[in-house]
Amino acid sequence: MNRWGEKRYHSLDYDLKNTYGEKVYKITLNGGMTCPNRDGTVGTGGCIFCSSKGSGDFAGSASRSISEQITRGKQDLRKKRPVHSYIAYFQAFTNTYAPAARLEELYLEAIQDPEVKILSIATRPDCLGDDVLEVLDRINQIKPVWVELGLQTIHPAAASYIRRGYTLSIFEKAVRDLRGLGITVIVHTIFYLPGESQEEMLNTIDYLNDMDIQGIKLQLLHILRDTDLAADYARQPFHVPDMMEYIQFLGTCIARLNPRITIHRLTGDGPEELLIAPLWTSNKRTVLNTLHRHLKEQDIWQGKEYHD
Ligand code: SF4
């Protein structure tokens, strides 16, 4: 079982080492954008789980230029290890939500550094108009562009609860448009949304298996301080899995996942100072070690239960 190095799943690390010959590190950036789900265009409260920093709690400060954020990000990473290759990752808020000319300036600034190998952009599928797609196309001719779309779930009830603010058909159009330009698409999913069964979560995986996407982020729902989700949880606590329940579910999910899709994330790492639950996710090393042991003991690998 060494199709992906020592791991039993198709990891991002494996892909990057294969392509660039070494580990490639992310520098999280803040381009100073907001989000249509916060400024009133789509909604005002934002997604129910989203922190005040627009799910960009590890991103640099928007008061600094992109070049400065990259320089600082490199300095921080190099304190711990020698690093030569980076992904410039626009993480905070909706990173295609600005005039196209401004976006192009920001993206060009990010990729001008020769050590930045990839531009990764987190956004909403309803913020990819023709002018934005043209910018992404031009940048993708210079360096690879990844676009990360926050889908979270395919189920309308959960999508409505989290106030996602767009329909599945908009997501499908965004994937088609991006893939028409040869842009890498990564999809963000959230497990254990209140009221969703494991079977429903796996339906989201089955759906994505058939889509032309290249990567997936599997995120366990994090309840963060000062969010509407935290208020709901305080009023009426909903089920939050313990580590073993989540590991067992992840095993099932990995077995169902199409082996060609790269896994970019397996749990998520909410900022410790904001995290209310599940607190065990802070110990990422233990979570990953336990998962690797579980996959080995149960002889699970990515795609074991996937059938074309
Ligand atoms: S779309 Fe992203 S930035 Fe906007 S509210 Fe939702 S999670 Fe937050």
Q: Could you write a compact summary of the structure shown?
A:
With 308 residues, this protein is α/β, with parallel strands linked by helices. 38% of the residues lie in helices and 16% in strands. It is globular.
For the biggest sheet, the summary is: 7 strands, parallel
Distance between the termini: 20 Å
Count, helices? 10
Read across the widest sheet, the strand sequence of neighbours is 1-2-3-4-5-6-8
Morphology: globular
How helix-rich are the residues, as a percent range?
A: 25-40%
Poorly predicted ranges = none
Protein name: Radical SAM core domain-containing protein
Cofactor: [4Fe-4S] cluster
Organism: Faecalicatena contorta
GO molecular function, one term: catalytic activity
Please provide a written account of the structure.
This protein is α/β, with parallel strands linked by helices and 308 residues long. It has a single domain, classed as TIM Barrel (Alpha-Beta Barrel). Helix content is 38%, strand content 16%. It contains 10 helices and 9 strands. It has helices at 12-20, 66-80, 100-111, 130-142, 156-161, 168-180, 198-209, 228-235, 243-256, 284-297; strands at 25-29, 86-90, 116-123, 145-152, 184-191, 215-220, 223-224, 262-265, 275-277. The strands form 2 sheets. A 7-stranded parallel beta sheet has the order 1-2-3-4-5-6-8. A two-stranded antiparallel sheet has the order 7-9. Helix 3 (100-111) links the parallel strand 2 (86-90) and strand 3. Helix 3 (100-111) runs parallel beside helix 4, helix 7 (198-209) runs parallel beside helix 9 (243-256) and helix 9 (243-256) packs across helix 10 (284-297). The chain is globular and about 45 Å long. The chain starts with 11 loop residues before the first helix and ends in an 11-residue tail after the last helix. The mean pLDDT is 95. Bound molecules: iron/sulfur cluster (SF4). Iron/sulfur cluster (SF4) binds at residues 35, 37-38, 46-47, 50, 54-55, 93-94, 124, 150. Residues 35, 37-38, 46-47, 50, 54-55, 93-94, 124, 150 line the site of iron/sulfur cluster.
